[in-house]
């Protein structure tokens, strides 16, 4: 599926809509719950999740008089509750090198995220190697090299159009020889030819397992938060192609409609390792459920 950016929403739009719907006070009745459901759907939460969130908010409170502040508080608490279990940083393995496969559609922010992660690990005293596994896109390889320079991390490349699995194998050899803590492998993101990409990812995994049967230790799916509900279908697609173990959500600086993260947590329960909040090297943050809930509700 081609990612279509959701219409821009201004920060705090959900909160303003709640205020408009509830001011000054209203009973938390069926009509009000229906209005809230519509607001949550407009915030990209999806129908199932919006229904569950409102039902949980209303439990034991049906018919009670509420102010907009009460509703926003309940909503934020419920969102934080859904998000709490998925807020988990990338687990660190004692074994070297820890192999992290990074997957996602083109444009989702894979290259940028790899650069940011490399920089963070480097700052934490880890040695990192990056493999530019999207060998079919020369521009992607160049971009990754730029990020590697910024982060001070070597980027292994292969000639354009060559086999990414061979590069991944060489990168394993290099990371082992260097005693690197972490090997991050970028991958192609052309969903236009799904079967091809699936075979390519499977081959990378097969080949690196010759070196370490437990590799990859993590398979991170990078998702662009501004694609809204499209992110859900991307998770399904990539789960069919690879053993996705966690998510990084990018471009949360550009959207007030982070509601899709709630839907993702509710439906898939995959850990969110980090969020991208800008294009600079330091713009990657741990995911904080309470900050997030406050930001979504506004
Ligand atoms: P890739 O094709 O998946 O490797 O995606 P890139 O890493 O090249 O990113 C695509 C575009 O999104 C670039 O213009 C990045 O600067 C931008 N980008 C990536 N992450 C973020 C983020 O967290 N916030 C913003 N605002 N832009 C981002």
Task: Provide structural commentary.
There is one protein chain. This protein has helices spanning 13-22, 30-42, 47-58, 68-83, 110-123, 138-151, 164-178, 194-211, 230-241, 259-268, 289-297; strands at 25-27, 65-67, 98-103, 128-131, 155-156, 182-186, 218-224, 246-250, 272-276, 284-285. Strand 8, helix 10 and strand 9 (272-276) form a beta-alpha-beta unit. The radius of gyration is 21 Å and the shape is elongated. The chain is of the alpha/beta class and 298 residues long. Residues 1-8 have low confidence and may be disordered. Strands 5-4-6-3-7-8-9-10 form an 8-stranded mixed β-sheet, with helices on both faces. A two-stranded antiparallel ribbon has the order 1-2. Helix 1 (13-22) runs antiparallel to helix 2 and helix 4 runs antiparallel to helix 11 (289-297). The relative contact order is 0.19. Bound molecules: guanosine-5'-diphosphate. Residues 104, 106-112, 140, 143, 189, 250-251, 253-254, 276-279, 283 line the site of guanosine-5'-diphosphate.
